[in-house]
């Protein structure tokens, strides 16, 4: 039997990169992957790819930073599938390496909405159904930027630190309810998250002082493999942990 047979998994930011790799991996292991993103075309490509392999997937457009959209989406998925067994909060945006003095409030709020408020909205809406069933797994995709201060700008760094705090709080609060919550902190990964960036010169220069220690960029599938372990029964005794997947970058 496959590791996620008959599970329903909601994955945000799943039209490309790490999210797409996770959606593919989970579907191959028997889950119905619900592909969430703002990119309708990208969603359809992922769903079609999964279905073409004989696996199960569906897609929904949702701006994770909008609480009402999240509420409506979760209600729709629960009505259609009866349960959400796995939640992966993967959607994220970068902040152009903006240091605090140069960071405008519009960018600060946008990064917080997507990277921190969005995961909270999804947890807030899905947790009651998990509590009712006494089972469920939540995985938050943070970053080494959530553990260190020099991997991104002020907004991204603060949001990813906050996401790790949220992970640990949920894990502790609900550990007697059959619910686990963990995080992955990837290092550099080959995705398109930085494709539209216009890096702040000072922030980028400061960040670059440590990149020589990064051994290589990860493939999205390598992060997806770690995700599968954490949400499956293989990781049944892992709760409230942050798995650092950076090839040893932060070991320096």
Summarize this structure as a short list of keywords or feature phrases.
single chain; 252 residues; Rossmann fold
Overall description:
This protein has 252 residues and is an alpha/beta fold. It has one domain (8-251): Rossmann fold (3-Layer(aba) Sandwich), CATH 3.40.50. The chain is built from seven helices and seven strands, in the order βαβαβαβαβαβααβ. The protein has a seven-stranded parallel β-sheet, sandwiched between helices. Helix 2 (40-52) links the parallel strand 2 (32-37) and strand 3 (56-61). Helix 1 (17-28) packs across helix 7 (220-231), helix 3 packs parallel to helix 4 and helix 4 packs parallel to helix 5. It starts with 7 loop residues before the first strand and ends in a 7-residue tail after the last strand. 46% of the residues are buried.
């Amino acid at each position: 039997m496959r590791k996620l047979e008959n599970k329903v998994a909601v994955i945000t930011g799943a039209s490309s990169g790490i999210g797409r790799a996770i959606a593919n991996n989970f579907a191959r292991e028997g889950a119905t992957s619900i592909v969430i993103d703002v990119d309708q075309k990208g969603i359809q490509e992922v769903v079609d790819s999964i279905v073409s392999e004989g696996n199960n997937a569906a897609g929904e457009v949702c701006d994770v930073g909008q609480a009402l959209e999240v509420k409506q989406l979760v209600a729709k998925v629960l009505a259609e599938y009866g349960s959400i067994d796995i939640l992966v909060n993967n959607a994220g945006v970068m902040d152009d390496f903006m240091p605090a003095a140069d960071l405008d409030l519009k960018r600060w709020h946008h990064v917080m909405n997507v990277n921190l408020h969005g995961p909270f909205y999804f947890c807030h809406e899905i947790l009651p159904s998990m509590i009712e069933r006494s089972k469920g797994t939540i995985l938050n995709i943070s970053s080494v930027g959530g553990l260190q201060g020099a991997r991104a700008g002020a907004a991204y760094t603060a949001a990813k630190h906050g996401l790790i705090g949220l992970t640990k709080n949920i894990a502790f609060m609900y550990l007697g309810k059959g619910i686990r919550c963990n995080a992955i902190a990837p290092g550099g990964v080959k995705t398109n998250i930085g494709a539209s960036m216009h890096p702040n010169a000072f922030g980028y220069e400061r960040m670059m002082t440590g990149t020589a220690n990064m051994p290589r960029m990860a493939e999205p599938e390598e992060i997806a493999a770690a995700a599968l372990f954490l949400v499956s029964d293989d990781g049944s005794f892992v709760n409230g942990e942050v798995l650092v997947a950076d090839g040893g970058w932060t070991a320096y």
